Structure to design on (1608 residues):
């Protein structure tokens, strides 16, 4: 047997916070790292305990629990929700099960952290946002896992925009470029099937950049005009794939039923223009989430491939000495950084999950609304729906539902 | 009196090529530098001679001629066209006079170089392309001044795409970002008035990136979906501005009648997706013409602010050692470079005009069609028209006329 | 009480590896993160257990143990060494106590990990290397904590050099630039006093770059020529500082007795030239450990401020397409990366300690010599001694003792 | 016959300035471009005229004169000096003839521009500086062609240091990295023979960085400690090489008699530390002249491979928003830029020669001392001599003669 985290009282008598996680793949590992580390680094009002993890394959979930330090393993998410030692349900499954699990967890009185995108449809997201609002009245909190808000550079960007350093916003350009589908023989995993993933690059990458752009800008999109494309329409079935995917392609191939790439332009409610691109075909770009904002007084630029850096142009300086400066976001007065290492000692991808856990624990303990809320997640979903509607209607400008 | 260039025979008996230039502001200075330098650096079949320059203000054009080494100065472009010592007419005026001058020059049997955009309307551009085609049969050549094709890195990019190094093209993303209109008190110059400039960022910057994207990709746009915006709708009249601009704004202010920014997405005829952004409001970006192409086998990336560099990712290499590489485009086997300095000794903006002159002189001497042709310029104009039409129709996807 | 790690058997019956750590400041926190995380991420032959941590201040070390998950806290390092549940002693104290603790731990039959620099003098380092060699015969292992060898990009660089990708080495240039002493009012901490730290930038930063340069190059320095300097010779005493530092400067100031910066050039035994710079006065450089190697066939370049990137120039490619490429060192086949996140999801500073723990656990379990050994640490110490000797003798070229 | 520049009066009656150039290879072409262009771009008190160029091969120099617009060609530099239409002698030959030509030109009452390094020995340089000083009293001016002072970014750096933006200087690190000798089959040209070139990388590249470092820092080196190396000691003789090179290597190979690389550290008179590296073996680095200065209040960084950029860190800003900023040195208020293109439209290598010509013409017309003077060139020569002496004496710290 492995090394479970103990359920102990914190020194100050505040109760621990039992976490139950559903799903245990990539996101599960990242969330585990976050929950396991957060109390070692930050001062927390309640100490999270890795109470139980849930997956369908009993042996696999048991091994995962041992590896990552979860005290118990479950194979039925309903059982996990019922556990007394679970105060918060962390949903790391594909999008098609988010709504059902989240609604049940909220109904059972649990706090909820739900991976993005909030749901595969606006309808599901509406139900979830409604349930979260109702639960809020009962003291429960719910949050969507747009973890990139917790990159220190992104949080710093948000605070600089909020301080007015950019002035009136003119342009927001955002792209999320990956390249793992460049190879046409990459198999048809669940992320390429609409029934599981809802959409392709749009929901996976596009959801991130819609949320991040609106978060940093502090403004919402009024409408969008969109193109989507599926470059490779048929791919080999993955080994051990369930039957019945389709008869298409003869033996061993199936249809890709989601978008490979989504491009859209938009207008913020304040009049700023935005451009978005989400793709899995940008050869050589591995995880290039890039955002640039141009305002009347300044600009900011960020690239997730260099996540410890924020580039800032102060447009109020004399031209002679002005220029985009590289802020190394590792100073003690940068968001989250006081708890970490000395200046210049950078953080990595997984730290976003530590920070997410930190903020969520505070919200639970203090009874505040953690952000992004399910309502925020619903709004992102409405943007994605407007993108899909526009793409289906010859790119005509389509308002985002309010 | 200044130092005019002599009209002499080249050593091999080939006649010189008399150049007459209309317009003498920013573009006039840049073209002068090109014509004056090209024969000093490149081996040419005919040596260009700076025969005459034309502008409306006699004293100013005379001073400009002295400064830049033009043998004669004219104040009437029709007189310039009639000169026997002018073999080629170089049109550097605002877009509203391109058609009239070019048509007259072609009719007078002259070769023509016309600054971009080719014209302010598709109709004018059609007339010009038709006239150029007719003149071609008489041995005359005509070319549009999309000078960025002559940045060595851009020419290298084109050749690498043509060699198949990128494979099937998936994405082309292009932006031309400047910031000189960020200040709302910047005056209402001719570039901000539709009757002179035709359009704003679209025709000025957008024309460049449409041409460059299609040139490097070696493909044409099938259609576009567009947004345009004018952020600052009224500006102070420039000192000494002509009357009649508008009564708007009372004393000293007038309406901006062109776009400040244009965003559009598009599809190439081969199915690749494209995104474009042209703006004069990207605070801190001075001349950031950026293009990135992603293909199934590789990617290329370029930024005019670092014009001696081309970034290349070879997607066929093993992941272990693959990455975007910075090609310093200063090697003798790079386009145009054998005539210049040793490796690492970079070129600048104005060299594009030297290279443009070189290629045009060769075309004249050898009787070949210089590129981009007026037909190419017309096609760019049709793309811009589709952009404007889409923007006027709620961004609906609009085919480019063929 | 906090949440100690359990001392459990691994599933395969192999015994856990009890770690006892001495020192609990910056390095203690980083090592804790490493020990706590390594078994969650990597498959290990033995699972490390955070058995006990030691520090002089009982309350502080107890709090640190609770925070970081150490099962027990000690205030006497001799007691820690004696504990049965401690198999490996991890020394994170200042350099003046390394020798005494390491010698005692080795004598007590424990494995040892010792922070760099190995010691404050060559004599101490010789004793430690001798003791480690003797202990090796008894099945114990000892390793020096030059953690930057465990940056994946550095490990990749080493393997590329070993594969011959650089050919005969010509140049190695290394710098470690920080700026935390730029402010003359920064207090006189132990790192600025020779009796505690041994030397200043030289031992702190210079030791890292000497080790890294020799590791990546796969060659050793034959001799050096050096300059050192102390720019600010007197600083305020830190609050609560021990008395008797010096009477200099009247109340509250004391003499800086170490170097602020060290510059040295050198020759590798193979004839390659090297340049080194270590400073705490490079305003704006926070943690810029930079290394570049130039060989007859290629070059490599790295900067710790962008630790997920390795730049590689393949000199055997045709000039037309050659250039320094940015390898994003996040691919599954890069060192240590298979255990982490998908491509493009970068790691941070602390991961070096996870990797160090991984390699050390393997060495312990498999009975192999972990690198860098104490003998390697001694050799670095000899280089530093040659630097100091050269600096004291007018920079005369000084051979490194063998 | 070609197109000579006319010897005309300027409009204001000031006489033209006849330039006679000795040498017509790489530097000759670059200087021609400078002289030919300067009057087209800048307002000058006297207009330079390309009067005559001199080289030993009559046909070649005649062709060069035609190509570059020199009115006359000479094959004897003494004849060139005697010409009445030559007011200023521009010396572009290898270093071994600088002294003789410059002394004769000064004796003949001519102004002199001499390429760097000023001479091959300190003795020659002393004679030249003495002659220049004497000529100065007669109204003649003399200048050394350290053209990199005329990169706008370098001139801006100098002015920022002079304004006190860096505060007390701590570090200056400079390198000039090229790679054209990486191939051991590169032939034994004059630059690799001591009798012609004086030294190798040291005099060619090292001279540049010594001058630039002292210029930007505004301080002089007190002493140095140096290593030099010749990696490839024998190379193929170039085709058509003169006999008597040496009997070494049998048929077709000769000994390299200069350094391939030089590394040195130094101290400025004010106490700042400096490191220098000059090499032709830095594979992949084509023309990487890099300089970084760290002061108590700020830092500057520059790389000639990106010559339109200057990086500046303002150390007085709050850490939260501080960072190295990229100043695009293309603004009208940047040195030399008002005469060129709009912001963001970069310059190239050859523009340094235009700027050099501009400053020299002003000095001639206004009777001021152009910088760097021959005395400055002599001082650089003394630094190089100290480097060679230190390298010959086991790197011992060697004072620079005053």
């Amino acid at each position: 047997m492995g090394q479970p985290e103990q359920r102990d009282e914190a020194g100050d008598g505040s109760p621990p916070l039992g976490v139950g996680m559903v799903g245990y793949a990539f996101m599960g590992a990242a969330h585990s790292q976050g929950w396991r580390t957060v109390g070692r680094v930050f001062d927390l009002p309640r100490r999270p305990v890795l109470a139980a993890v849930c997956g369908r394959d009993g042996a696999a979930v048991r091994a995962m629990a041992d590896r990552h330090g979860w005290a118990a393993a479950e194979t039925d998410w309903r059982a996990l929700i019922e556990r007394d030692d679970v105060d918060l349900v962390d949903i790391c499954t594909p999008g098609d099960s988010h709504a059902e699990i989240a609604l049940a967890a909220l109904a059972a009185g649990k706090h909820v952290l739900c991976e993005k995108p909030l749901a595969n449809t606006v309808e599901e997201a509406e139900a979830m946002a409604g349930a979260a609002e109702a639960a809020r009245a009962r003291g429960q909190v719910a949050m969507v896992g747009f973890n990139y808000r917790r990159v220190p550079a992104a949080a710093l960007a948000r605070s600089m925009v909020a301080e007015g350093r950019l002035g009136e916003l003119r342009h927001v350009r955002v792209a999320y470029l990956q390249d793992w589908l460049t190879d046409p023989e990459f198999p048809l995993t669940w992320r390429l099937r609409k029934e599981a993933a809802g959409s392709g690059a749009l929901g996976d990458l596009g959801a991130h950049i819609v949320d991040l752009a609106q978060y940093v800008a502090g403004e919402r999109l009024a409408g969008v005009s969109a193109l989507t494309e599926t470059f490779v329409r048929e791919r080999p079935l993955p080994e051990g794939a369930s039957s019945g995917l389709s008869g298409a392609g003869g033996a061993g191939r199936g249809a890709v039923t989601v978008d490979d790439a989504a491009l859209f332009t938009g207008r913020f409610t304040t009049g700023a223009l935005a451009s978005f691109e989400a793709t899995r075909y940008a050869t050589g770009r591995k995880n290039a989430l890039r955002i640039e904002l141009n305002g009347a007084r300044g600009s900011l630029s960020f690239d997730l491939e260099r996540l410890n850096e924020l580039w800032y142009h102060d447009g109020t300086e004399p031209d002679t000495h002005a220029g985009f400066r590289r802020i190394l976001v590792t100073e003690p007065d940068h968001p989250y950084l006081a708890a970490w290492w000395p200046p210049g000692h950078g953080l990595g991808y997984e730290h976003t999950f530590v920070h997410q856990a930190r903020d969520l624990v505070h919200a639970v303990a203090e009874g505040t609304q953690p952000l992004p809320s399910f309502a925020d997640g619903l709004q992102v979903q409405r943007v994605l729906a407007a993108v899909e509607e526009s793409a289906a209607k010859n790119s005509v400008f389509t308002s985002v539902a309010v």
